Amino acid sequence: MTPPSPSNHLDNLAAWSEITARQLAVEEEIELTDEHLEILYVARQFYAEYGFSPSMRPLIKSIAAQLDISKGRSIYLMQLFPPSPARIAAKIAGLPKPKNCL
């Protein structure tokens, strides 16, 4: 696993794997399920397409378009990636922190 940067986000995006994701999730006290993983893959696809990590609104829109409208809701993401879904999902997905996330 590539060591995390000071912000705890991976320095080498290509080093990411589901095993890495599970290790990063433990740091956030999250046990990854298939529901988590599908969100992570959407976030990684967004990054591959646009070159930056999605903040909450673009993440929700991408999830709704690619998965299901019921999964493209902030309450659903809060249940999976509390307390900051876009930031936590980006971290576990091995992506840089979204620009407007604290």
Q: What is the helical fraction, as a range of percent?
A: 40-55%
Main sheet characteristics: none
Number of helices: 5
User: How much β-strand is present in the residues?
Assistant: under 5%
Outline: globular
Distance between the termini: 25 Å
Given helix and strand content, the structural type is mainly alpha
Instruction: Note the run of SSEs as H and E.
Output: HHHHH
Poorly predicted segments: 1-7
CATH architecture: Orthogonal Bundle
Brief characterization of the structure:
With about 100 residues, this protein is mainly α. The radius of gyration is 12 Å and the shape is globular.
Structure description:
This protein is mainly alpha-helical. It has a single domain, classed as Orthogonal Bundle (Arc Repressor Mutant, subunit A), CATH 1.10.10. It has helices spanning 18-27, 34-50, 56-66, 74-80, 85-92. α2 packs across α3 (56-66). Residues 1-7 have low confidence and may be disordered.
Produce the secondary structure layout.
Layout (H helix, E strand, L loop, with lengths): L17 H10 L6 H17 L5 H11 L7 H7 L4 H8 L10
Helix pairs in contact: 2-3
Summary keywords:
single chain, 102 residues, mainly alpha, Arc Repressor Mutant, subunit A, disordered N terminus
